[in-house]
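Take a careful look at the sequence and tokenised backbone pasted below. I need to know what the token row says about the fold.
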Amino acid sequence: ERGGGRVVFVEPSPRLLWAAGAGSAPDLAIRTAGGTNAFAHLKASDWVDWETLLRTDPDVIVIPSGSRATLMMHAGIRASIYEVDEASFVRPSPRLAGEAERLAAFLRSRP
């Protein structure tokens, strides 16, 4: 699905991931960018395990800058990875609009 797709925002840690569900600032940014939050069924701030992330099979995983190494430790990640400034992406602020615009451009650029 060009220009959109199933997108999740997670903050990876070795055992669990903080996931952004419905009503969160990342959810708003994902939807504004034209994506579908694959974790919209979760509460705004929730924890998921790595198996849940893999089962969800998102097209794009949005992570805070500097988290790629933790994410890539886990086999089976097939999604495109997009890094964001966490402070701008997880809190409602004027900077969230800019992050949503950059994410939209990334989603449009995917084959």
Q: What stands out?
A: The helical segments are 25-32, 50-56, 68-72, 86-89, 94-109. The mean pLDDT is 91. The first strand starts at residue 6 and ends at 12. The two ends are 9 Å apart (CA to CA).
